[in-house]
Amino acid sequence: MDKQTVILEKMVTTLLSEKKYPSLRDILVTMNPSDIAGLFDALEQDRVPLLFRLLPKELAAETFVEMEPEAQQMLIQGFSDSELKEVVDELYLDDAVDLVEEMPANVVRRILAQADPETRQSINELLRYPENSAGSIMTTEYVTLRPNMTVGESILRIRRTGVDKETIYTCYVTDNRTLLGLVTVKDLLLAEDDDTPIREIMQTHIISATTHTDQEEVARMFAKYNFLAIPVVDNENRMVGIVTFDDAMDVMEEEATEDIELMGGMSPSEKSYTRATVFDLFRQRIPWLLLLMVSATFTGLIITNFEHALAAQVALTAFIPMLMDTGGNSGSQSSVTIIRALSLGELEFRDLPWVMWKEIRTSVLCGVVLAAVCFVKILLIDRLLMGNSDITIMVSLVVCLTLAVTVFLAKAVGCALPLVAKRLGFDPAVMASPFITTIVDALSLLVYFSIAKLLLGV
Amino acid sequence: MDKQTVILEKMVTTLLSEKKYPSLRDILVTMNPSDIAGLFDALEQDRVPLLFRLLPKELAAETFVEMEPEAQQMLIQGFSDSELKEVVDELYLDDAVDLVEEMPANVVRRILAQADPETRQSINELLRYPENSAGSIMTTEYVTLRPNMTVGESILRIRRTGVDKETIYTCYVTDNRTLLGLVTVKDLLLAEDDDTPIREIMQTHIISATTHTDQEEVARMFAKYNFLAIPVVDNENRMVGIVTFDDAMDVMEEEATEDIELMGGMSPSEKSYTRATVFDLFRQRIPWLLLLMVSATFTGLIITNFEHALAAQVALTAFIPMLMDTGGNSGSQSSVTIIRALSLGELEFRDLPWVMWKEIRTSVLCGVVLAAVCFVKILLIDRLLMGNSDITIMVSLVVCLTLAVTVFLAKAVGCALPLVAKRLGFDPAVMASPFITTIVDALSLLVYFSIAKLLLGV
């Protein structure tokens, strides 16, 4: 909660207890819907319905959309049917769909009962699109024009029908629901002659999504082309909706959070940190911790198998953490880089050989430098400074050779796994650091003991 | 490179070798500037200037903006002065500034020489704002209106002056450069009466940034409020520019990439993976690998100090990797979660006690479940199945107790460090997994050996 919200919260609480409703209303209407929602989320929940009723109708609906689902549900449960109808009527269709998706069944029934029949039908249609598809985030409220309309007629049409549209700035030219082209309001306003037919100024090379396009891909289209809206067409190339840039921004933010959570070894969650309960956090984290703990059985087995070697050369044990960590870090550097490049659409599976070659050269550079510095460090710090005479030059050699080989293996595994995961239809982010670390740990120990056997004869 | 680009590349190369320039032009004008730029980046560089000259002036400038800096530089070096002037004249001011920032000094001199004096002055002014500030990403090309204009006059003004503005959809009402309010083109078009003065319909509660606001914060404002543009004011509250949503999207993407790179233990880079050379990757990665390798000296020292304990109870060594990895994973789960929440503006330093309390409860849940499962796993798999009789019940107890304590410590350190880093003015993402892993490794080993001493008397 930021400082401003804290001050506002006090102010509002005081005015509420003094029942100064006109002043409260005056304060609230100066605020932005997101900020009002933020304030409502911070207040005690029993105060919210009263404040909500102070808001003018349109502002009330805009604020409602920005509130957390829990708070929305509380409000709806307190609404009379006519109050609920007022809010539902003001919602844009895609926001109504989001709401229906978040609410429990009994609340959904009330919402749908209050929506007018046309809205109800549209909501039900939109609900049928698969989660995370363009269809599920689009809205069906957009401006359509006919190709033979003139610029002047089009502007009139926008002025007459625009009030309920989520955006009026991009208008779609359709014929029998087939998408022919688009014009922007800028094109219309800057057109030299009001009698020009739309057909002559419309852009006909259109970038569109289909209802089944993944929402992440739609968001990438926005980032690439800087559009305000992208049209969505069905299998027969008929226009069925638009996705607007603000929804694309939300998707970009969500998908980045999801990637980051997976990379950190957690199941993604739709709840923000502030909203998640302790048990939510526990459920997000424990499966991965368990999985990785159990899979560490392998590293344990490897060490057990080489116990006699470690007993013969006690100095070797001290370098295990360093070797494992450096391997893990090298591997996650590569995997994280590749995962991000995949998310941004820069790489595909077919790039695997090229990526491998790039990573292998990088790993040789990193491995050689690390091994050289490590050799000097071991001899200067560990042997001379700390006076550990167990650490012979041969031991240092074993450690440094292992280091170089481990970095090489870690980077090869780290870059290949996300690409392979993508190919197999998994989310590449699943292959990030915790997984790579476990694999690389096992590899580095095997390399360590093999080289030790070879060079030290243990 | 995606499949479509590959097909296009072949087509264009064939048409070029057959010198079918009219057809080439026809193909190119159907394409979106971003896609043309993508095609140019994929083609052999000596073919690009010829193709570029086939493009109509406006499309050429739009394509130029989307190209990689290296390709832009090549093109400029091949331009005659008049060609360069044509492109520079068509650029929006913020794109011109980006270009000047990317090009080497001799190219910059040529660009500035070709810009008209007014543009040159504006570019120089924009260049003075600190990197990553709102001032550095804003443009000074926006529509201003006066408060006493009518709706009709405003629409006329937009039609007359809009062509060079980056957006016309949000217009700013100023008086003597002081920002009084804003109207959208939607407000203007939907206004009932053309004679209404702007003063009466403008929104006066404006969310704005200052020239020094961090670009990350500006991007967050877009994600929160869904604006098309945000006005930027100077210290005297005079309006100096606007940031548009497309630039905010780029910032969101860049900042997420930067966080992810830091979390993966790399220095952030502005180059995409496909553009980065092997040496770029090496430079991004080696400092962290070296730092973490050297800091692993501590873990080595701890093990060396407890060598006799390990020699007395050889079974203990086998669990070191599992304990270190689980600790590292637990810690990075917490740090990654907190870093993302900080990036999204959900948390601040003042939330530290609340965050700690939440993480501590989560860690107790995770720690207890992990320890219990681990105890059963050790006795069933490691002792019974693998027949390792060195692993006594006391050894399992030591391992499981260490596991629980390590998870607790890892989560406490993992959630606190990013918040402290933020408070001290560092990027919290620096505190992510590799750092946490190193600290947690040392802690977990200390805990392990202390508990072993206590319970096993080694």
Basic shape of chain A: elongated
Strand residues, percent of chain A? 5-15%
The low-pLDDT segments of chain A are none
Write the element-wise H/E pattern of chain A from the N-terminal end onward: HHHHHHHHHHHEHEEHHEHEEHHHHHHHH
Distance between termini of chain A? 60 Å
Q: Structural class of chain A, please?
A: mainly alpha
Biggest interface reads: A-B, 117 and 117 residues
Q: What level of helicity do the residues of chain A show?
A: 55-70%
**Taking strands numbered 1, 2, ... along the chain, how are they ordered across the largest sheet of chain A?**
1-2-3
Please tell me about this protein's structure:
Chain A is mainly α and 458 residues long. The first copy, chain A, has 23 helices and 6 strands. Chain A has helices at 3-17, 21-29, 33-42, 48-54, 57-66, 69-78, 81-90, 93-102, 105-114, 117-127, 134-137, 151-161, 185-190, 198-201, 215-225, 245-263, 278-295, 297-305, 307-312, 320-343, 352-385, 393-423, 433-456, and strands at residues 144-145, 170-175, 178-184, 209-210, 229-233, 239-244. In chain A, the strands form 2 sheets. A 3-stranded mixed sheet of chain A has the order 1-2-3. A 3-stranded mixed sheet of chain A has the order 4-5-6. In chain A, helix 15 (215-225) crosses helix 16 and helix 20 (320-343) packs parallel to helix 22.
Task: Furnish the topology, listing elements before pairings.
The structure is a homodimer of 458-residue chains.
Chain A: H1 3-17, H2 21-29, H3 33-42, H4 48-54, H5 57-66, H6 69-78, H7 81-90, H8 93-102, H9 105-114, H10 117-127, H11 134-137, E1 144-145, H12 151-161, E2 170-175, E3 178-184, H13 185-190, H14 198-201, E4 209-210, H15 215-225, E5 229-233, E6 239-244, H16 245-263, H17 278-295, H18 297-305, H19 307-312, H20 320-343, H21 352-385, H22 393-423, H23 433-456
Parallel strand pairs in A: 1-2, 4-5
Antiparallel strand pairs in A: 2-3, 5-6
Helix pairs in contact in A: 1-3, 3-5, 5-7, 8-10, 15-16, 18-23, 20-22, 20-23, 21-22, 22-23
